[in-house]
Design brief:
Blueprint lengths: L1 E3 L2 E4 L2 E4 L4 E4 L6 H7 L8 H16 L3 E5 L11 H15 L4 E5 L8 H6 L3 E3 L1 E4 L2 E4 L11 E4 L4 E7 L2 E13 L2 E5 L10 E2 L17 E6 L2 E7 H4 L2
Length: 233
């Protein structure tokens, strides 16, 4: 589904067809180990699921470039053993399938550089494709770009039917200071995300979002849900 001119939603990723570039974000590799250290025991399956999902997307799109828009790893101030191993394994998989990988630094990535250097991967604070600026979204930026793509929020909505409910990842599209703004959900299947209909939002780009449009993604595909203000009624 096209969310903006020449930009398509493919699962939890954005696909720039003309530039053959794929954007994913907020993988938070090593998240299970961080939970284990807090006494929360969960099976370590996220890397396998992330790679399986990405394989399907790569087969559909055949990109030459993958842009990881922040929070590739989870722990803030250090590199956990699982993170080091999983980030390298993930980069090895992606580099075997595309010509170039670019990491945009997120707020969880203050020390991502030593890992990226092991595979010769470029780490930047932001990246531009034509008139589109891709930035993690934890801090505001000044730009002349017409469109801004952010992550950070792990955007989601809770869908209810009778007594049943399910939190689903979603893309958001709206305006920020006259520019088109697109928020991309987390690519990590373990992270459900922030319910943008009722929970406190993290990104400073997402202030008044009542007129933002919601695109829900799931196993059955992508679905347009209308504007947030209509879903909140």
């Amino acid at each position: 589904m096209e969310i903006s001119k020449s930009i398509k939603i493919v699962d939890a990723a954005l696909w720039f067809e003309a530039e053959k570039a794929l954007v994913i974000n907020d993988l938070h590799l090593g998240y299970e180990e961080a939970l284990h250290r807090k006494g929360i025991m969960v099976p370590r399956f996220q890397l396998e699921q992330i790679i399986d999902k990405l394989k399907i997307i790569l087969q559909k799109t055949k990109p030459t470039k993958v842009i990881i828009n922040g929070d590739l790893k989870h722990e803030f101030g250090k590199v956990l053993r699982q993170e080091w191993k999983e980030v390298l394994n993930f980069l090895d998989f992606v580099l075997a399938n595309v010509e170039e990988v670019i990491i945009i630094k997120g707020n969880h990535d203050p020390i991502i550089q030593p890992i990226a250097d092991k595979r010769g991967v470029l780490v930047v604070n932001e990246y531009t494709i034509g008139n589109v600026l891709i930035v993690h979204g934890d801090e505001l930026v000044k730009t002349e770009a017409k469109t801004i793509i952010i992550g950070h929020e792990h955007s989601a909505v809770t869908i209810r039917e009778g007594s049943k409910w399910e939190k689903c990842k979603c893309f958001l599209k709206g305006k920020w200071e006259g520019k088109e703004l697109i928020a991309v959900p987390s690519f990590n299947p373990l992270l459900e995300g922030t319910d943008v209909l009722k929970e406190e939002l993290l990104s400073p780009f997402l202030g008044d979002i009542k007129n933002f449009e919601v695109y829900v993604v799931g196993e059955a595909g992508t679905f347009y849900f209308g504007k947030i203000k209509d879903l909140q009624q």
